[in-house]
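COMPLEX REQUEST
Ligand: zinc ion
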Amino acid sequence: MEKLNYCSNCSGPIKFLKKHYYCNNCKTIIYLDPKVAVAAIIFQNQSILLVKRAINPSMGSWSFPSGFVDRGEKLEDALKREVMEETNLKIEVSNLIGVYSYNDNPIILCAYEAKVLSGNIKMNHEIDEVKEFLLTELPELAFDHDIQIINDWKKQS
Ligand SMILES: [Zn+2]
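STATUS: Structure written out below.
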């Protein structure tokens, strides 16, 4: 979890009490919101489209196109935007595969199945490579939940 030292309200020193930070100076509880992320399983030609991450966390490993949802943004729109930013592909979002969250981890990940509508692959700076992998030849994936997402997706399809 993030470590905070000062109050966002009065800049006084803050303490972590049980579940939340507390500012003794202005008597305010500081709530830290979770971060919502979306990821896409894009399945075509018996293969899953993966991106090689050029940034941390897990720089150099393969994972699904993914990214954070902006405040006020619809999940499906965030996913379309992120896939467009990372790969230049226009997608259609189909069903929700699952929602993944973990203790002491601020990120809630929503994984969707998606189809490519159009576009030629062009990467942004967050990505080193975009590649389709046969289901039987998947590389080692960046995050623990990635393989769980694939297994959940297989159960549904
Ligand atoms: Zn304060």
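REMARKS: The mean pLDDT is 92. The longest strand covers residues 107-118.
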